[in-house]
Amino acid sequence: MAESGAQLFARLEPRRSLKHIEPRLFPDDGGPDHGEVVELHGTEGTGKTELLYHLLCRCVLPAAAGGLETDVVFVDTDYSLDILRLVSILDSRLSAAGGLEEAELRSCLSRLLVVHCSSSSQLLLTLHFLETAFSSRPSLSLLLIDSISAFYWLDRCEGGASVSKQEEKLSKCSELLGRLLRDYRITVFATSHAIRRSYRSPDAPGSSSSSSSSSCSSSEGERPYLCRSWQRLVTHRLLCCRAEAGGNMAAAAGGGNKEQRRRQVFSVHCTSSSSSSSSSSSSSSRLKAYRSSSFYVTDGGVVFI
Asked: Can you give the residue ranges of every domain in the chain?
């Protein structure tokens, strides 16, 4: 693709770093830097989309409200984006910062570009389209995908018995994403659904009971299953789950009112990988750091505890 001088300048111009987008989620050495990918993984109802809303609002809010004032692309493959929910969170954050004006809310929403996709082929075309947006808008620093695994079963069905055919479309999307990350130094956050592949009977020894199925330490459903091309892109993995009932009470015991103690608490376990500068670029040279955090969801968004 030929690019103009203005597009070349936009591509090479430094973009806003999101390394400190949410210090409570990532290890002490910081979150995702330019050209890195964060995968939020977990079963349905574990707070992944709420975390995306939280990160999105952090980016589009003005500095006076604790935001980064940077543009965001939200690729909605599950058709689950609740714009009224997003506006409610923005409204709450702006009000808490000292007043809400319609112009401020409009300014926040003007920093958001929403795209819907209904197949892997559309996702691939969307990423090609977004290259023009990234090349012309240096303020566009964050790409959110909810979710990257939305078409997993559809692709498996269309690919037949061939694993390479099943993974072909997502592999092409991942390769294009890798080029966008390299050329435009954006940051990507993407959710993925946990797929349970254990077929043991619920009554079998060692099988997960209903009380433990929501634990972050559950077995095969938490293992990466998407294509290798995608797995190689991921530098930070957030494993999301619901905290057990005892954990809810313990987390809230340190303070808060009765209403806070009744809320469902979610846990996030972060694994961050970075390449050692003194080693080769192979996977064995990657250093890992860990962090765990908890949060609950209110009308005003995510609250960390």
From this structure: 5-304
